Amino acid sequence: MGKQELPLNQLVEGCVLSDRKCEELLYKCFYGYLAGVAYRYIRERDVIRELVNEAFLRIFKKIDRFAFDGPPEELEKAFKGWIGKIMANVVIDRLRSRKTLLYIEDMSKEQFKDIAIEMPDRLAYNDIIALLDCLPPIQQLIFNLYEIEGFSHSEIAKRLNMSASSSRVYLSRSKIKLMACYRHLMETSYGR
Amino acid sequence: MEDKDLFSEIRDAAHEWQEPYEQGAWEDFRRNRKRKRGIVVFWRYAGVAAVFLLLFLGGVWYTNQREINSTHKQVSRVNTNPNQLNVSQKPSDAEPTKDAIVENVFRPAGKNRAPMSSVRRQLVKSKKTINAHVVHQLNAAANNELVTTDTYGNPGSGSNNRLQTQTSLDSTATAISRNNTSKTLIANAPVKKVPPGSHSLYDSLTNRVTDDKKKSNHNLTYALAINPSVGNKKMSFGAGLEVFYPVSDHLSLGSGLGFASLHAETENSGGNAIIQLQGSNLDINGIELPINFKYQLSGGFYVNAGISAVAVLNNQLAYHYFTPTTQTITQFDGKGSPHQAIQLASAKSTEQSKEQLASYIGFYTFSTGKKQTFGKSQFSFGPFIKIPFNPISSQNIRFTQGGFNLSFSF
């Protein structure tokens, strides 16, 4: 939040009142974060800007519904969680509009070979992306939605038109596969 | 790294990550927002304009009807009064009766009638003058014929001439008698009960707009229309009331109100997936408000172009899936001993979407057709095409439709 001159709560209040400067500041502050969220689902840079803009349209439209009663230091985290969910919804809508929500699970071992982790103790964002790329699309999607964005299984089930139990199964498989992938990469990269 | 550490590490790293800000992203966002707002504002204004247009057209129609009705009542009251319509009167004598009609039409009823305005008095006066002139011309024609007879009966001609003159005199006498009879007939002719607005001579001289002219130029045309159509593998249906206001001889502005029941189905190609979206069904019911221009061509043909908005009353979007499932069945081998076998089967499932669809759908409409007259009513028929402004749902369903329009004007 380096460029932010106003505290977040004042920025949000300004946006509720449709203050153009507050909107611009909020947009520029959180553009990078939302682009990062979108990138975890869609690896197309040219599409991401369009999706982020669509998410901001929804954010500014619904910003009066954002409410937080916790301690002020948690406000940014809560706000990020809220806008992250909106971004995820926009991305899911886009994936569904493409009609290519493939539920493929099997991946060959050849898909692991180009992935290398740079820092074994402290994971960088690129390492996470590399690890997530090990997962089949449906597992990747559910892992992102549940573990990172904080959706519940019932919410995921509604969004993806599947049962909550299927969502749980996909999540547990994704965790197992992610761990296996992580160990495999550690062994191949560092001989651990 | 432990399992929990790994996932929390992933979570933290993901939340902390920010992509670099792209130059011009905010400007791009503002442009997009302005465009989307513009579309919303346009539809709001279009809706309001359509309502005002309908109110205006309704007002024009109501005023016209009221004027026509009041004129009918006043004229029929005067025509049915025997004291004012004397059939034995001469044309010049009959005129006050006609004037009375005119006066009664223009003047309010009651004892304390207001005096006629100077313009109306002048019109009545001109009419009297015109009628007197017509009678004078008729008399002059008869006199001319008498003069001709005198020429034929000139003394000093030969016997043949005399004979001819005699014959001519006889025929002339008959002609004069016929002329006199016709004069009497004109004089004694009963005053026709003319329908209101059909005083052709009077109207043409005074340039008064007759009811016929009003009907042809400014009256609204109403039509009941039904328009079945096909698009997106399903049949849709629309019906409603159309109103047309003639702007000129060939061009008319139309609007109306109707019910639209739109249906669409999409299909998705299969793939190697465990669960695969096979297709979707979208059903929408709404109120349709069209605004269009109709151009009348020769031979009863017409072309129509415009836009229409459908306010969605209810919608239903359903997705169809094929989910492969496994079934355990009991099979018997050659020795007759049973064993379990797993069989792969596909189950088709349908789920209702929770997606919020647009409240309004806009269409460009184009149609052509022919108008056929049956008695007092007119029957129009012809093909039409409707092209939506944008896709309806995230599944890119477009309600592009082609169909046939049938309407009965009255």
UniProtKB/TrEMBL annotation, chain A:
InterPro entries the record matches:
RNA_pol_sigma-70-like, RNA_pol_sigma-70_dom, RNA_pol_sigma70_r2, RNA_pol_sigma70_r4_t2, RNA_pol_sigma_r2, RNA_pol_sigma_r3/r4-like, WH-like_DNA-bd_sf
Entry keyword annotation includes Membrane? no
Enumerate the spans annotated as RNA polymerase sigma-70 region domain: 26-99
Q: What PANTHER family does the annotation carry?
A: RNA POLYMERASE ECF-TYPE SIGMA FACTO (PTHR43133), RNA POLYMERASE SIGMA-70 FACTOR ECF SUBFAMILY (PTHR43133:SF46)
**Member of which family?**
Belongs to the sigma-70 factor family. ECF subfamily.
**What is the species of this protein?**
Mucilaginibacter panaciglaebae
The RNA polymerase sigma factor 70 region 4 type domain covers which part of the protein?
A: 127-178
Q: Name the domain of life this protein comes from.
A: Bacteria
Q: Which UniProt keywords apply?
A: Sigma factor, Transcription, Transcription regulation
Descriptive protein name: Sigma-70 family RNA polymerase sigma factor
TrEMBL record, chain B:
* Region described as Disordered: 150-170
- What organism is the protein native to? Mucilaginibacter panaciglaebae
* Record's keyword annotation contains Transmembrane helix: yes
Q: Give me the segments passing through the membrane.
A: 41-62
Keywords on this record?
Membrane, Transmembrane, Transmembrane helix
- Superkingdom of the source? Bacteria
Q: What is this protein called?
A: Outer membrane protein with beta-barrel domain
